[in-house]
Amino acid sequence: MDKLYLIDTNVLLESPEVIKEYNVVISGLVLRELEKHKLSYNKELAFNARIATRFINENVDNLIFDLKDYQVTFDESLDKDYTDNKILQSCLDNSYSLITNDLLLKLKAKGLNIEVISPKDNDDLDYKGYKFVDLSDSEIAYFYEHINENIYNLYINQYLIIRDLTKNTIDKYRWNGKEHIKLKIPPKKFIRPENDLQECALDLLNDTSIPIKIIAGNFGSGKTFLAVKMAIYHINEKGNYAKLMVVRNPIGTGESIGWLKGTKEDKTDDFFVPVIQNLDGGEFEADKMIQSGKLLKNIPFFMKGITVDDSFMLVDEAEDLDVKLIKTIGTRLGKNACVAFSGDYQQSEDKFIYNNGLVTAIDKLKGNPLVGIIVLDRDVRSEASKVFADL
């Protein structure tokens, strides 16, 4: 029997012609989503849904329709009513392969050994926390005349980077749900952004009204550096928080060196080196901050039941956290506290590919007024480090 491919809604919306290239199965879940999108207030989405429906009708004789309502049984911890989970269950029950452009669904499918095809052929998130717009002089003028209107359909706390038609940056704003506001970052004598996205990240890390911050992106893009520097700025320069709590899950890439003797600190100290090296005084500064109570180190295993008050909590290498661990850490936040998750979802260890808490958090929390997200995309570490990014 020829291999069957269950197609996701996002592919039909973006590339409906794909149904001519494979033995495609269309589920009742997807049909219901298309019907809903046809009535969307988003004109582009509604138009694409109508085009997809037309493609289906024109090729109906070559398609297979699976209208079963699947019960999610492959993982008891997951939401049984979530469409993506039902799609995965249908693939497992019928040995379907999957066609999707959704990174989160793609990661879950790979973790379940489901073959995945992505027409867009990328490993990137649809939502990155910002939008570039290249505008003519008249369009720029129109924007400034309508500064309080959400012209470009931004999520709350999404950044807008305005460029001219030669792609030179003109201005940067963040949409707060009511108006576009200018970015506010520390003085350049304290920290200087390398590019537009780093400036957006600094604005997010600087804003105490947004207690949940996600700084994602590839290695070398400055995630940990920016977060550490801003934590120190809040603590030592502004007095906004009393201490920095650094959280890392002690998961490593490479071969294990076996069981380590000693205390919790002895066994986990090396995992905090990437954070400590971003302090101006390195280990000396870290020791001084620990002695004064300004720096705490923790791992998720020991955090259940505690409350974190008056703190800037930095969760580094957050790609190695599942949804349960993200919840465990996030629910520790107490009074006058914030949390910054920093990580590269493309470097997740194997056990977190299927259930990646960082990607899930970005997907589920975007647009929440208490949450800000920036996905950095440029390696600023060195020219040599960029060479290895493509291996």
From TrEMBL:
SMART domains: PINc. InterPro entries: P-loop_NTPase, PhoH, PhoH2-like, PIN-like_dom_sf, PIN_dom. PANTHER family: PIN DOMAIN-CONTAINING PROTEIN, PROTEIN PHOH. It comes from the Bacteria. This is PhoH family protein. It comes from Neobacillus paridis. Residues 3-107 form the PIN domain. In the N-terminal section; belongs to the PINc/VapC protein family. Keywords: ATP-binding, Nucleotide-binding.
